Amino acid sequence: MSHISVLLHETVDALLANRDTGIYIDGTFGRGGHTRLLLSKLGPDAQVYGFDKDPQALAVAHQLEQEDSRFHIIHASFADIQTELNQRGIEHVDGIMADLGVSSPQLDQAERGFSFMQDGPLDMRMDNSQGQTAAEWLLHIEEEALANIIYQYGEERYSRRIARAIKQAGLLETTAQLAELVKAAHPKWEKHKHPATRTFQAIRIAINKELEDIEQFLPQAVDLLKPEARLAVISFHSLEDRLIKQFIQKESTIAEDSGWGMPQQQIDTRRLKKISRIRASEEEVKANPRSRSAWLRVAERLV
């Protein structure tokens, strides 16, 4: 299955807000769907910078660089967005978007090791040019730490039983081995969901530091935005969405300061205002079932 960009027009239209020039950032280039649509709506003086860790995504991005001089790719996580842009002389931008999670090519290519649907090496690294594979990581992590990760990142109620089975098994080299082991250890399967779904999600999030990267990215993104510039972020599961929701809530709410013995005063520290929260349409979900769980949150920089 080729990659279909989720909430494509909704994201780009919300990001631009009827503008056609400026500097824009795609924090998760992937296969470039959002970036290409963005470029198609921008004038000749605009610039778009893409970030990605995946070597296969970078190959697609380098081709786009050859096709369109307004586009530039950066081989880095969006967690390093401020440093990378500052090094290029960019202090402020007109909009930032990010499409979180794994892309369809990552899931569909067995050799990437993300999916239990087809057998492949147990890898799961978004940047497979560096770092530990999932197989190596599972071999070295302590059982209690693994159980906590499966519980927290996978929201898996049988995390301790699954972690014990994984650690007792020793070296697991393929996605099929891990999937079958979790299946055997799982006492109660959810309807229409493979019993290894939550465990695979948790391991992937942990080895790629996905939630830590989001936590680092969001405040940097707001620092970079000009007044009236927008942040548009697509999430695919509740852990991601909760981080984004809470961050936007915090940045768009007036903080209360009650001094000792003094009347309560309100200090306006708001940097964002909420614009919208959008789900995929019924038509999009029918065409691309992976869009079913997607949420787009949009916020605008105030000052």
From TrEMBL:
Query: Where does it live in the cell?
Result: Cytoplasm
The processes (GO biological process) annotated in the record are: methylation
Q: Which residues cross the membrane?
A: none
- What keywords appear on the UniProt entry? Cytoplasm, Methyltransferase, rRNA processing, S-adenosyl-L-methionine, Transferase
User: What InterPro entries does the annotation carry?
Assistant: RsmH, SAM-dep_MeTrfase_MraW_recog, SAM-dependent_MTases_sf
Q: Which residues bind S-adenosyl-L-methionine?
A: G32, G33, H34, D52, F78, D99, Q106
Q: Does the keyword Protein biosynthesis apply?
A: no
EC number(s) from the headed UniProt entry = 2.1.1.199
Cite a single GO MF annotation.
methyltransferase activity
Q: Under which main EC class is this enzyme filed?
A: transferase
* CDD domains recorded: AdoMet_MTases
Is this entry keyworded Heme? no
Q: Name one Pfam family in it.
A: Methyltransf_5
HAMAP family in alphabetical order: 16SrRNA_methyltr_H
What is this protein's function per UniProt? Specifically methylates the N4 position of cytidine in position 1402 (C1402) of 16S rRNA.
Q: Which NCBIfam families does this entry report, sorted A to Z?
A: 16S rRNA (cytosine(1402)-N(4))-methyltransferase RsmH
Task: Please give the family membership noted in the entry.
Answer: Belongs to the methyltransferase superfamily. RsmH family.
- According to UniProt, the name of this protein is Ribosomal RNA small subunit methyltransferase H
Query: What species was this sequence derived from?
Result: Acinetobacter soli NIPH 2899
Gene transcribed to yield this protein: rsmH
